[in-house]
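re the bet — no i am not wrong, look at it urself. input seq straight from the record:
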Amino acid sequence: MSDAGKTRPLILGLTGSIAMGKSTVAGMFEALGVPVFDADFEVRAMQGPGGSLLAAIEAKFPGSTGPGGVDRQQLGALVFGDRDKLALLESIVHPAVVEAREQFLYRHANAPLVVFDIPLLFEKGGAKEVDRIVVVSAPAQVQRDRVLQRDGMTEEKFQQILALQMPDAQKRAQADFVIDTGTSLEETEKAVEELVEKLSERLHE
């Protein structure tokens, strides 16, 4: 698409497979003053104490919510590995996320650039909703080492998660830009800064 004559911010879709460092990179964009819409954060808020989605989730998944909001472990056990139940949960969550994203865009209508931090950007068809795509990537061994350091993570769970995600190589092939997090934090920060500068220059052409 042409960036000329746009009436809204350029939307950068930020994605990457599990443990590739996407959240870290999102924080780097924020540190540079770029507004970031964090889909996962919004979902956690909607599922937290008093969250707007609790009633709908409890109705479809009885016993999965309580005073503290959604019991993530309980709900996870109900949907993990069950595509139908996962699809049902997504049918509750997705419309609410879309609404929150629209409100975010409205608030930042005058920003030249915004980031949509969406873990399953490709898998859920979100690529068509952004102008450019940034994929955060690291070597497979680095990814595996990071994942297996997480509490409660096992090799089996890791493989099941990978099976639900588009392969990293395929994501990189479809990206407009790739940020490598297999390097030092300083090098990754420099790559993010250079990308923001490049896009800012293009927007002012």
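see?? The chain has two domains: 9-35+114-205, 36-107. told u. also Residues 36-107 form one domain. so pay up
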